[in-house]
């Protein structure tokens, strides 16, 4: 899912939370909103690592090229994993969730991350791209060996 959709849906989700729980501080609501799309920072890190350029527009171009390559592979019947995104792994979510038990701001970051990941899962399933992502850090580490 493109960042603009995560930003839009994250904003709507944050408004819904605010509507049903108006006593939550604006700081915590801001954490939910920001974490609902900034989790994608790992996509930027990956693009920088692959092409060596810190320009955000080059990162967008890199991911556009990757989508085009994936479409070609898909038409040929090839289904490969995409780039590894650490912030999207179950282990990273669990770590933030555990921190959220002890440190309240992390709880709200966790909520935004889970919302983001649910949107991603829905989109990946809808677009028949579920196979592209590695969801477990441990599987990625095993593949490196």
Question: What share of residues is helical?
Answer: over 70%
Distance between the termini: 30 Å
Give the low-pLDDT segments. none
- Strand residue content: under 5%
**Cα radius of gyration in angstroms:** 16 Å
Strands, total number: 0
Q: Helix/strand-derived class? A: mainly alpha
**Bulk shape:** globular
Spell the H/E element sequence. Answer: HHHHHHH
Q: How many separate helices? A: 7
Number of structural units classed as domains? 1
Question: How are the SSEs placed, and which strands pair?
Answer:
Elements: H1 3-20, H2 26-38, H3 41-51, H4 56-75, H5 90-102, H6 104-126, H7 137-144
Description:
The protein has 145 residues and is an all-alpha fold. The chain has one domain (3-52, 62-144). Helix content is 73%, strand content 0%. Helix 3 (41-51) crosses helix 4. The longest helix has 23 residues, at 104-126.
């Amino acid at each position: 899912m493109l960042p603009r959709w995560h930003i839009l849906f994250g904003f709507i989700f944050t408004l819904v939370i605010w509507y049903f729980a108006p006593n939550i501080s604006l700081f915590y609501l801001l954490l939910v909103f920001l974490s609902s799309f900034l989790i994608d920072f790992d996509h930027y890190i990956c693009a920088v690592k692959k092409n060596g350029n810190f320009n955000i527009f080059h990162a967008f171009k890199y991911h556009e090229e990757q989508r085009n390559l994936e479409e070609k592979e898909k038409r040929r019947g090839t289904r490969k994993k995409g780039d590894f995104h650490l912030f999207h792994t179950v282990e990273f979510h669990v770590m933030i969730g555990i921190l959220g038990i002890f440190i309240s701001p992390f709880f709200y970051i966790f909520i935004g991350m889970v919302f983001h990941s649910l949107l991603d899962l829905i989109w990946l399933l809808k677009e028949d791209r579920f196979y592209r992502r590695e969801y477990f850090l441990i599987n990625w580490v095993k593949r490196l060996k």
